[in-house]
UniProtKB/TrEMBL annotation:
It is an enzyme of class 2 (transferase). GO terms for biological process: methylation. Keywords: Methyltransferase, S-adenosyl-L-methionine, Transferase. This is S-adenosyl-L-methionine-dependent methyltransferase. It comes from Streptomyces tanashiensis. Pfam families: LCM. Gene3D superfamilies: Vaccinia Virus protein VP39. Exhibits S-adenosyl-L-methionine-dependent methyltransferase activity. It comes from the Bacteria. GO terms for molecular function: methyltransferase activity. Residues 1-26 are annotated as: Disordered. Belongs to the UPF0677 family. InterPro entries: Ppm1/Ppm2/Tcmp, SAM-dependent_MTases_sf, SAM_mthyl_Trfase_ML2640-like. Its EC number is 2.1.1.-.
């Protein structure tokens, strides 16, 4: 399969090639200690809190172990009872519940896809996702986890220390999604002819627009046997307009993660339309649709950083 992928030079308009490559190496060395890698721990902490709720939407018994193992988040809560304002805290209340709801919805999406016969799962920007360990997947299923090497190394260490065993074959693929990840994936045994479910959960808005377009094209090309893709998009034209929203402010002030600094703020491609043009059927939902369906989760509020969030579900028929 011949590849044209956005080089770091072409995908980062404001940085020179050597500088961009050096900053990628530096980000990778950080693992989960900082930069975008730390956002994987934010989601893990949210999943830990969700797991311990009496009305939990999703269960991840590994999540709190990641939080406890990382010096960067030694003082983060893993239960809502450890947060003085409880659910009134915009970060550990509403935002964490958002991640809990997203986990549940995408768990259901993966489980529904394997019921339909899909046997490969590819987690793009897998972070500390433990679906290979906790979902009841068929034994002949393979889960590929793509993230940067430093993040996957931290994950491996924590899971090894817990003697955790995946329920199915699990293949970590350490690679930067701004580089040629297709070669990395296909060289680990991924088979485009096997019906595949792809997840890009909390990922695309960190990537430069060219890398997102490349990713969507690649998912289409690598789905020759039929497949499904779920991804999260943000529709806001100007994300900075939400800088003072409760969620972004709390995340910045309480744990020092400035999400708007990590997001790629350039114009985004319309990936749902792109997939439709390639013959996929797509549906776009708001998170609030699922809050209503499950009877719990975030609801709209004024100056809402979640207002433009959409969860897109796409299907490509098999041959
Ligand atoms: C918010 S976390 C979400 C992790 C996981 N999908 C989840 O929902 O728990 C974003 C993840 O995307 C990964 N990521 C961001 N940019 C990336 C890139 N250029 N290449 C590979 N992974 C990347 C980060 O390392 C991080 O693990």
């Amino acid at each position: 399969m011949s590849e044209t992928f956005p080089t770091r030079e072409s995908s980062r308009s404001t940085t020179g090639g050597d500088t961009a490559a050096a900053s990628t190496r530096q980000a990778d060395a950080e693992g989960v200690a900082g930069g975008v890698g730390l956002t994987a721990l934010l989601v893990a902490a949210a999943r830990a809190i969700e797991t311990h709720r009496h009305d939990s939407l999703a269960q991840d018994v590994y999540a709190e172990h990641f939080v406890r193992a990382a010096p960067a988040c030694a003082d983060w809560p893993v239960r809502i009872g450890q947060v003085p304002e409880g659910d009134d805290n915009p970060l550990w209340g509403r935002f964490a519940r958002y991640f809990g709801l997203r986990t549940r919805v995408l768990d259901d999406f993966v489980l529904g896809s394997v019921l339909d016969g899909f046997r490969q799962v590819v987690l793009l920007g897998a972070g500390l996702d433990t679906r290979a360990f906790r979902l009841d997947l068929p034994s002949d299923c393979v889960v590929f986890e793509i993230d940067r090497a430093g993040v996957l190394a931290f994950k491996h260490q924590v899971l090894t220390d817990l003697s955790a065993a995946p329920r199915v074959k699990r293949v970590p693929v350490p690679v930067d999604l701004r580089a040629d990840w297709v070669t990395a994936l296909t060289s680990t045994g991924f088979d485009p002819a096997v019906p595949t479910v792809w997840l890009a959960e909390g990922l695309l808005f960190y990537l430069p627009s060219a890398a997102e377009t490349y990713l969507i094209d690649a998912v289409d090309r690598l789905t020759t046997g039929g497949g499904a893709l779920a991804f999260e998009a943000k529709l806001e034209k100007d994300l900075l307009a939400y800088r003072d929203s409760a969620i972004y402010t709390a995340t910045r002030e309480q744990i020092g993660i400035d999400l708007l600094d990590l997001f790629d703020l350039g114009p985004r491609p319309d990936s749902a339309a792109h997939l439709t043009a390639k013959g996929w059927s797509t549906s776009k939902r708001t998170p609030f649709d699922f809050t209503r369906r499950h009877g719990r989760g975030p609801l709209p509020e004024p100056n809402d950083a979640l207002e433009g969030n959409r969860w897109v579900f796409a299907r490509k028929p098999g041959p």
